[in-house]
Each structure stands twice: as structure tokens, then as C-alpha cells.
Amino acid sequence: MTAAYEHGYDYDYDCDVLVVGGGIVGLSTAYALARSAPGTSVTVLEKESGPARHQTGRNSGVIHSGIYYRPGSLKARFAVRGAAEMVKFCAEYGIPHEVTGKLIVATDRDELPRLHALVQRGRENGIPVHELGPAQMAEYEPEVRGVAAIHVGTTGVCDFGAVAAQLAEVAGASGTRIHYGEEVRAVDRRPWGVAVRTSTGRTVRAKVLVNTAGLHCDEVARLAGDDPGMRIVPFRGEYYELTRPDLVRGLVYPVPDPAFPFLGVHLTRGIDGGVHVGPNAVPALAREGYDWGTVRPRELAATIGWPGTWRIARRHWRYGAGELHRSLSKRAFAEAVGRLLPAVTQDDLRPVAAGVRAQAVLRDGTLVDDFLIRQAPRTVHILNAPSPAATASLPIGREVARRALALLP
Fold first, then answer.
1. Within 10 A of 129 (CB to CB), how many other CB atoms are there?
2. What is the C-alpha separation between 65 and 127, in angstroms, rounded?
3. What share of the chain is helix, strand, coil (3-state, %, to 5)?
């Protein structure tokens, strides 16, 4: 340990950089620190009993190409770069993965302008995109119907939970200390650094704090005395699994609505051969509200009390009503899937585990579209890192590590 001096007292540091959150972004940050600055001591605190228990381990496992994101944005740059790096990382460490490609399908002519805009956006982002007519679509997906589609060859699938575990293993072998079952309860920031107290009574003193707490990142920022200027509003994504996986060969997506950060109900053949259908996007009644029965009044009150929540509701109530209807009605969900896959019926859908998206919302009701990284004295906060953050996790980790190292005295 090294010592700091303030007002006549010596302080012993437990580490140089303290990372709060053991999801894929936090662990990729620790991994990047271990690789780029080997002499830097790093500690990771994770409140769960292991890594990747929330957003990382509960998504569809898609390695996104980056086609959807505004050229020049962090999402576009990091997803395109991250997709290639993720495939290389999985190959290097023997993690199951496959580059499958995917179809984005217009099911009616009104969607064609948006489909063509995606083609242009993909090309601006340097992504190979091929336009297809109905006959060409059938060569990829015989059971899928639409008026036109595009094929994106760089999309793939992997096990992001396994990726996170491997990042933890590599970082740990380089000296990173990872403590599970340690929920951050208090942060004391001083001129010499930060002191964090956890749920077990552990105190960790560090020169710099990195906040990658995902669903709780805004709360950790406030504990550190920083105003994040946003609030995490949790949206639950509910999935089904096809009981007839032979209906789908790979990945099939609808044309997304650019007004929303959600990609719509899609079909994903995973590395295990099963086909996930979803997700929809409904308000969660807790930050970790993976079903309608999980309600945490304090968290729900905080969400309802945020002005941006009401502005979202007023602006997008029709969209939200449709998502709620599909959540409560399996028939309605099957009908939505049927636009892409007419052969599907209610009986073909089996419920599987849901996920919760940590969506940053500004006071004016703006759904933050890009990754959001903010710095303050001695702290780096990652305040919006939903999809495609898992795909982009290696470049995100390097960027966060660079910022943390720049804050070291």
C-alpha cells in the first residue's frame, strides 16, 4: 500500500483504482488496466456472489455490428471495433461464439425508407451491408416474410457471461483483487482520494473510483457527491424461446423505430442452438425487477418521482401501451412475432428468463441514446451503458481505464 498525507495524517491506499460493479464493463476496465498499466493496483467490488449477474448475463448474447448507431457516436465507434475484438477474444480463450450474420426485415412498404436509411448508416460506419428482395431473403430464412431486407454479415452470438468470467480471470491473474458480496453503501471523497464502505463493513481506500454499477450507477454517483444529471429508469425485456427452433436459421430483426433505443421483438439463434424471441420493453417495478411480482417501493417511488419519467409517459404512451399489451397477452406477443415469422403460434412460445435494461433518462424525458461517461474529481462514472455495451465492452474498458489513469496523482 502507498500512503497519502492530509492535514497531518497518513492514509494508506488499498489500491490505485477501485472499480464498483462486476459486470462486463467493470471487468473489461480491470482487464484494460492490467494490460495497459501493469503496475497499477486495482480492486473490483461486486454486490452479487459472482460476475455478470444482471445486464451482462441476461441479454440475448448478440455481438452487434454497429449498424444502428449514429456515425461518430461512441456506440457506433465502439460497437464496430468491439464486435471484431469480441470475436477475437472469444477465439483466443475458447469461448463459444459464432459469426452468423443477420437479416433486418421490412414487413411492409412503409418501413422501406427506414430500411434504406439503415443501409446508408451501415456504410457510413464501415459495415458490409447487402440489400435483399423477398426471393433472396428466402435463401437465408425460408420461413421469414417481408417486402425487403438487408443482410449484415458481421453480427454474431456468444456467451457474454463466459466472457466476463474470463476477463475476471485474466485480470485476477495480473493482480486485480475482485471481492464479491460487497455492496457499496457509502463513499467518502477527499482531496487524497476516496474511501468506500461496503455492506460487510469493509473499507477500501483508493486514489480513483470507477463507477460501472449499471442499474445502480446513478445511485453510486450520488453517494460520491456527484450530480449525474440523469436517472436510471429500468425497462424489463421479456423473452420467449421457440419450441420449434428449426423455424429460424440465424438472427432476424425488424426495422427499428429511430425514436426509441429499443430494437423491437427479434429472433436470435444462440450458441446453444435455441432461438430466443424478444425482448419487449416494459417498465420494471424495481431496478432488478425481472417479473411483475418484484416491487421495491423505494426504487419505484424514485423512478416515478423523476420528472423525465412522466415526460416519457406523455410522449410515448401509445408505444408503451403496445409493449404492456404484449407483456400481458401471449397472443399479442405471438401476433407481433408473426409479422416476421408467420408460421409461429402461441404454442411455439415458451417463457424464459427476462432481463432489465438500465436506461438513462434526462430530466426533460430524453432517453440517452449514446454511451454516457462523466468525470468528476477522483471519479469516473459510466452512466449509460445498455446494449450494445457487451459487444463494445473491450473498447469501453480501454476508454474508462485511460480516463482513470489520467486522474491518478
1. 19
2. 7
3. 35, 30, 35
- Specify the residue for cell string 430483426: 253
Please check whether residue 228 is in contact with residue 383, taking contact to mean a CB–CB distance below 8 angstroms. Answer: yes
Evaluate whether 335 touches 329 at the Cβ level (below 8 Å): no
CA distance linking residue 171 with residue 164, whole number of Å:
11
For range 195-216, the mean pLDDT: 97
Q: Is 0.70 surpassed by the pTM of this model?
A: yes
Which amino acid is it at 247? Answer: L
CB 75 within 8 A of CB 66: yes
Are 248 and 38 in contact by the 8 Å Cβ rule? The answer is no
Instruction: Label residue 260 by pLDDT band (50, 70, 90).
Output: low
- At position 263, the amino acid (one-letter code) is L
Angle at 100 between CA 95 and CA 102, to 5 degrees: 135
The number of C-alpha atoms within 13 Å of 206 and in the hemisphere containing its C-beta is 30
Report the range of poorest mean pLDDT among 23-27, 140-144, 311-315: 311-315
Integer Cα distance of 300 and 173 in angstroms: 40
Residue 75 and residue 371 in contact, taking contact as beta carbons nearer than 8 Å: yes
State the angle between helix axes of 330-338 and 317-328 in degrees (0 to 180), rounded to the nearest 10: 110
Centre a 10 Å sphere on the Cβ of residue 93 and count the other Cβ atoms it contains: 14
Q: How many residues does the chain have?
A: 409
How far is the C-alpha of 155 from the C-alpha of 133, rounded, in Å?
Answer: 20
Average pLDDT over residues 388-399: 98
> Which residues, other chains included, contact 307 with Cβ-Cβ below 8 Å and sequence gap of 6+?
363, 364, 365
Q: Which of 400, 401, 403, 397 is nearest to 82 (CA)?
A: 397
